[in-house]
Every structure is written in structure tokens, then in C-alpha cells.
Amino acid sequence: MNNFKLGLRLFVITAVVALALAFTNSLTAPVVAENQAQELKKSLSVVYPADSYEELEVDKAETVENVYKAITADGEGYVFQINSPGGYGGDIEYLIGVDPDHNITGFAPLVHSESPGFGAEMEQDFFKEGMVGVNMDNEVGYSEAGGENEIVGISGATISTTTIVKGINDAREVLASLE
Fold first, then answer.
1. Contact at 8 Å (CB) between 69 and 75?
2. Does 42 score more than 90 pLDDT?
3. Global pTM?
4. How many CA atoms lie within 13 A of 112 on its CB side?
5. Closest alpha carbon to 163 in 147, 135, 142
């Protein structure tokens, strides 16, 4: 009988705590969603400054999560939200902006678990700046110095760099279908 009472008490305590957590989650979920939306909007403007962004419904590769049309007074470009699996520490989620001439205008990592000093170097300016101007008309690769169709690779982080390039090339295929 004592075991039954103990089990019943534990069940009641667990149920009360679960209800309290559910209530707290229902109160904070809209605030969290709004903060995430604001953070995304800020990141969109980093990779392609625009007056507004319109999410497009298009056929896309599995790694391309969202495609946004960036609308400016001077014309339109695109921002691709990419979640590329296969990084050294797991998936790498990032944004790239692309101008009307299909040149990358910016790169912003959103979520990753790459090693500090290696794959996490994608957050450094040299890597972000090494993306700018890379043309996506042909398959994109990487090298130490970068080039017209090559991003600047991260030394010692071949897996991370290859994962990012794969996502960029998937976005390139989606870009070709938009034209």
C-alpha cells in the first residue's frame, strides 16, 4: 500500500510539473518565434540588403530550406537559407545572398557545431569576404585563394568547406530554375 501511495504522489508531482512546463511554453512560444523572425530578418539583410523580402514557394533541393526574393530600388536578388548535412560537427545552416548577375553578395552562418579553430572559422571575416563575388553560373568549388567560381577554403576544415560548397551548388540549381 505504501508503494502505491508513493507512486501516486510521484505521478501527481510529475503531472503538475508537466502542466507548469506546458503552460510556460505556451506563454513563451510566441516571444521565441518573434525573436527568431527578427534574427532571420537581420541575417537576411546582412547577406543581401533590401527594402523587403518575399519568401518564394519553389521546387528546391533538400538542403535548400527557404528561398527569399530580395527587393530593392535597383532590382531584385535572392537569399537562400541552406541546411547542409555532413559537416564535421553536424549540419551547417547558413544564408547566402545572390545578386541579379548570380554573384554571391554575402554569407551568414546561422547554426553549426563545427570545431573552434577549424570549421568554426566560417564565422570569420576572411571566409565571409572570400564568398563575395563568387559567380554561381557554373559549379562552385573552393581553393586556398578563391576565384571566380571558387570560395576561399578553410585550412584544415575540408569536411566543413565541402559541406558548405555542396549547399551552395544545390542553391545554384534552384537559382537556375528561377530564371
1. no
2. no
3. 0.76
4. 29
5. 142
